[in-house]
Specification:
single chain; Rossmann fold; 8 helices; binds NADP nicotinamide-adenine-dinucleotide phosphate
């Protein structure tokens, strides 16, 4: 059986991705770090829609915890493997570089970049053996164009694009595709501290004149996760309302 694992599936974009993949027929493994209640809510929503889901909590920045959780999951699921991996867990800690402290730099690189590495490395082996896999990473417009106040976040999100392109070339012959999506501005918990006035200003630069929704990001992820996207690899799909990148 092919399972889908979504890191940071408890809230926001990750929740919408869980719902999308469940709708496509995959049993979904919902990862979260600390908000178990939100993860439970995602699971209930999947089940209300007729899907199947389970929770798997671990911190993507903790390599030992990632290995332990995924090893135990594999032991408990001899019937299948994670064929669809969505690296969605992410955080931002904005500051102008001149004021940025080590913790702000390190935590953002740890979650958005090291998390991608620890989880993908562990799940890749089974995809290669089974000769089928879909790896989709949620990058950002910041990783393509760079955003002031986000040197840490832009660096991490650009790095996962580089890793996506390199890995796509490593594993293509085994029918494992590796792609990324790069959302623009999507209202979620991550963006709720952005002042209304600034957000309204930003809208004026978006050709479609509005912010995106988690469902619109999930639609792109769902396409890349589908069997019909089998000839697309090493690609980045922007979901940003037409902002020039
Ligand atoms: P969000 O609402 O803040 O949700 C973040 C998710 O990541 C939560 O499920 C959280 O789990 C999880 N998470 C954070 N650190 C983790 C860790 N160390 N280990 C495991 N899970 C962790 O954020 P979002 O807006 O949905 O963002 C999702 C992804 O889209 C991120 O990669 C973000 O960078 C990217 N993105 C967002 C936007 C946007 O405008 N919103 C734009 C471009 C890209 P808990 O619930 O347990 O805390």
């Amino acid at each position: 059986m092919k399972y889908a694992l979504v890191t940071g599936g408890s809230r926001g974009i990750g929740r919408a991705i869980c719902l999308k993949l469940a709708e496509m027929g995959y049993p979904v493994v919902i990862n979260y770090k600390s908000d178990k209640a939100a993860a439970e809510e995602t699971k209930s929503l999947v089940e209300q829609n007729g899907g199947v889901a389970e929770l798997l909590g671990f911190d993507v920045t903790d390599a030992t915890a990632v290995d332990a959780a995924l090893e135990s999951w594999t032991d408990q699921h001899p019937d299948g493997y994670v064929a669809i991996l969505v690296n969605n867990a992410g955080i931002r800690q904005d500051n102008m570089m001149v004021f940025m402290n080590n913790e702000q730099w390190d935590s953002v690189i740890d979650t958005n970049l090291h998390g991608f590495f620890y989880v993908t490395r562990r799940l890749l082996k089974n995809m290669l053996t089974k000769r089928y896999g879909r790896i989709i990473t949620v990058s950002s417009l910041s990783g393509i164009k760079g955003m002031p106040g986000q040197t840490n976040y832009s660096a991490a999100k650009a790095a996962v694009i580089g890793a996506t392109k390199a890995l796509a070339q490593e594993v293509g012959t085994r029918k494992v595709t590796v792609n990324a999506v790069a959302p623009g501005f999507i209202p979620t918990d991550m963006t709720k501290d952005i002042p209304e006035e600034y957000a309204e200003q930003m809208k004026k630069f978006i050709p479609l004149g509005r912010f995106g929704t988690p469902d619109e990001v999930a639609a792109a992820v769902g396409f890349l996760a589908s069997e019909s996207a089998g000839y697309i690899t090493g690609e980045v799909i922007s979901v940003n309302g037409g902002l020039y990148t």
